[in-house]
Amino acid sequence: MTRTLPARVFADREDACRTLAGEVAEMIAAINRSGRPAVLGLATGRTPLPFYAELIRRHREDGLSFREVVTFNLDEYLGLAEGHLESYRAFMRRELFDHVDILPGNVHIPDGWLAKSEIPAHCAAYERAIREAGGIDFQLLGIGRTGHIGFNEPGSPRDSRTRVVALDELTRRDAGPSFGGISQVPRQAISMGCGTILEARRIALLAWGEAKAAIVKTALQGQVTDQVSASFLQEHADAAFYLDEAAAGEL
Ligand code: PGA
To answer: Residue 3 has what pLDDT?
Structure first.
């Protein structure tokens, strides 16, 4: 059923990330108290950077521990050299994992360096690992200007699962500057599917800045359609957008 997806608007991205990090820290503590690890779905890109900075600050200053946290990242590029700085594996180490007490064995990121023939089994195993961990308690999302969540570009079915996806030209263009030009941006990735993401018990989508305002409006207030995978969040029972004023500018 379609409902009004909550849009929480903050003065700036740091303010939004302080609030969300506080909520996630409480959630981790409550789940750990119930006797099991908390399972977090994590995102990459520029958007979550202030959120990860705030988690690291809480780890250092407030005793937030990740020892009983299991993570699953949304996606990974295919075709990069191993250790490439723009790989999401490198990103996660640099921006979060190297700075907190998470156990390396509890971290899951799709493997972008497998032989093509090994990828389908790897995707199936990724889905199985999420299920065996008890499902995702909290999923963090950004949104691309194509409306993608993960790398679920326009046309990704509502029930899609972890698989190889082709990156939209707009997505590749937006990634161009960090790769030193669009020709260096991979054409494919492994991504959790829309169905995988929508099974998370709670979801927060973050968006900052004017460049995201139009797609935020479409995702929140437009039709639910596989042309805008973030619009599927309208059908989720516990999803919310966390926006700065610029990203909320067209609502
Ligand atoms: P960005 O990417 O955080 O770098 O804007 C968001 C996304 O493509 O999901």
So the answer is: 63
Strand-pairing partners, residue 8, are 242
Q: Which atom of ligand 1 is nearest to the CA of 148?
A: 9
Q: How far is it, in rounded angstroms, from Cα 204 to Cα 186?
A: 27
Ligand 1 pocket, CB under 6 A: 45-47, 142-144
65 C-alpha to ligand 1 centroid (Å): 27
Contacts with 211 (C-beta within 8 Å, 6 or more apart), sequence order: 145
The domain made up of 7-244 has a fold known as: Rossmann fold (3.40.50)
Residues 71 and 107 sit within 8 Å (Cβ to Cβ): yes
| Ligand 1 pocket test target in 13, 17, 46 with most atoms within 8 Å of CB | 46
* Segments making up each domain of the chain, as ranges: 7-244
Which residue in 4, 8, 6, 55 sits closest to 244, CA to CA? 8
Q: What is the pTM of this model?
A: 0.97
pLDDT-derived band of residue 2, with 50, 70 and 90 as boundaries?
A: low
Q: Where are the beta strands (DSSP E) in the chain?
A: 7-10, 38-42, 69-73, 75-77, 107-108, 138-141, 163-166, 188-191, 202-207, 239-244
